[in-house]
Design a protein that fits this description.
With 199 residues, the chain is of the alpha+beta class. It has a single domain, classed as Jelly Rolls. The protein is 14% helix and 34% strand. The protein has 2 helices and 13 strands; from the N terminus they run ββαβββαββββββββ. Strands 1-2-11-8-13-6-3 form a 7-stranded antiparallel beta sheet, covered by helices on one side. Strands 7-12-9-10 form a 4-stranded antiparallel beta sheet, with no helix packed on it. It has a two-stranded antiparallel ribbon with strand order 4-5. The chain is globular, with a radius of gyration of 15 Å. The protein binds N-[(3-hydroxypyridin-2-yl)carbonyl]glycine and fe (iii) ion. N-[(3-hydroxypyridin-2-yl)carbonyl]glycine binds next to strand 8, strand 9, strand 11, strand 12 and strand 13. Fe (iii) ion binds next to loops.
Amino acid sequence: MGVTIRGAVLHDGWLDAAAQAAMVEDLRGVLAVAPLVRPVTPSGKRMSVGMSAAGRFGWITDSRGYRYEERHPNGVEWPPIPASVLAVWEALCPEARAPECCLLNWYAEGAKMGMHQDRDEADFDQPVLSISLGDEALFRIGNHTRGGKTESVWLRSGDVLVMGGDARLRYHGIDRVKPGSSPLLPNGGRINLTLRVVT
Ligand code: MD6
Ligand code: FE
């Protein structure tokens, strides 16, 4: 079920507070192995979001471009995707192949993400599933090309958004995060996980 916004399906409150807290603990384990980095885009701008990943692949950007890599920039293999995270994919995307990347985006105060398409994957028939943890974020979704009318929705801690089918290649981004809007993370901020099939 869930609420549909431009073909993306929002399962609001999918994870309860206990499940969110357990997932955050699992993610602390991921970050201990694969620490956050603030990547620089090919245009030379440092992103405001910190990134890490779990699974076979992590998504990387640097002066050479955007791509998936099998190792963290520091040389370690990405840690496995936690079972707590895989369970959400299995529940909401049962027809899909197994995810090969769980990208972790960290939004400290003031961080945002410009409008983009997720198109570095090989098979656009496979959905992307996003999990929000911590402070609320204003998510904007638009069209299959840049520009035009858009719609926005606040993503709250525990919400899960699935972008498949017609929504898979829509432009989307995060305009802002509301500080202090969730008690989940002791020092505030927001974590977004996106699960992807890469190959
Ligand atoms: C975010 N999310 O929520 C950014 N991508 O912080 C995304 O970029 C995203 O929510 C693909 C599918 C769902 C998403
Ligand atoms: Fe995205």
